[in-house]
Amino acid sequence: MTGPTTAYYDVAVEPGMGFAGIRLRPGFFQCILGFKPISLREQTLVDDVAISACPPLATLCAETDTPEALHDRLIGFVRSRVGQDHAPLSRQTRRILSAFHASSGRLPVQDIARMHGLSARTVQRIVLDATGLPPKSYARILQFHRAMRLLRDHRLSPSEAAVEAGYADQAHMTHALRRFGGLSPARLADATLVTLRD
């Protein structure tokens, strides 16, 4: 179980090992795991430590014969924890996060606050509560995702992608790719991007 993080990490995978995972939309962390995302910021919990933080996770730990069975069990777990509430965020929080996404993290907090008739401090609190990250960190991750899509899906050159994603220059974007994904513009083919639709 990994909380909101601003750095990549590698997971050791051995032959014969299978795993399934989910990436939670903002607002779903607490309703599924039972605690606020900020309490797990920049942390990863494994094995018994993860189960002690969220005891219902123990139901996921039995062996399976197929990867599909593990996938189905995980989906069932998430659905049972979400229940009928498919929009745990308030309307205001959804609008604030949508503004961050629509601008790919390029709009300053003050501008987003002004657009919604709120103080910058209120926007900061809303983002931190929903994502577990300060607005600047959240915006940088959105900007990183945009750069990855521009490079991989739209096949822009690194310099074009840097400009379009809002980086100062190509070196600035390359630094962000390394920090957030352990990648470089030349090494994107094996990267998987998860979107809010997946």
Plain-language structure description:
With 198 residues, the protein is an all-alpha fold. It has two domains: 1-88, no CATH class; 91-181, Homeodomain-like (Arc Repressor Mutant, subunit A), CATH 1.10.10.60. The protein is 49% helix and 0% strand. It is built from nine helices and no strands. It has helices at 28-33, 47-53, 67-82, 91-102, 109-115, 120-131, 135-152, 158-165, 170-181. The mean pLDDT is 87.
Summarize the SSE layout with pairings.
Layout: H1 28-33, H2 47-53, H3 67-82, H4 91-102, H5 109-115, H6 120-131, H7 135-152, H8 158-165, H9 170-181
Helix pairs in contact: 5-6, 7-8, 7-9, 8-9
What are the salient characteristics of this protein?
198 residues, globular, Arc Repressor Mutant, subunit A, 2 domains, mainly alpha, 0% strand, 49% helix
CATH topology name of the largest domain: Arc Repressor Mutant, subunit A
**How many H/I helices?**
9
- Please give the CATH architecture of the largest domain: Orthogonal Bundle
Beta percentage is: under 5%
- Count of all domains: 2
Can you identify the CATH superfamily of the largest domain?
Answer: Homeodomain-like
**What's the N-to-C terminus distance?**
19 Å
Number of strands: 0
Q: Any low-confidence stretches, pLDDT <50, length ≥5?
A: none
What's the overall geometry? globular
Give the quaternary arrangement of the chains: single chain
Order of helices and strands: HHHHHHHHH
Estimated helix fraction: 40-55%
Return Rg in Å.
18 Å
Q: Quick check: average pLDDT?
A: 87
Name the structural class: mainly alpha
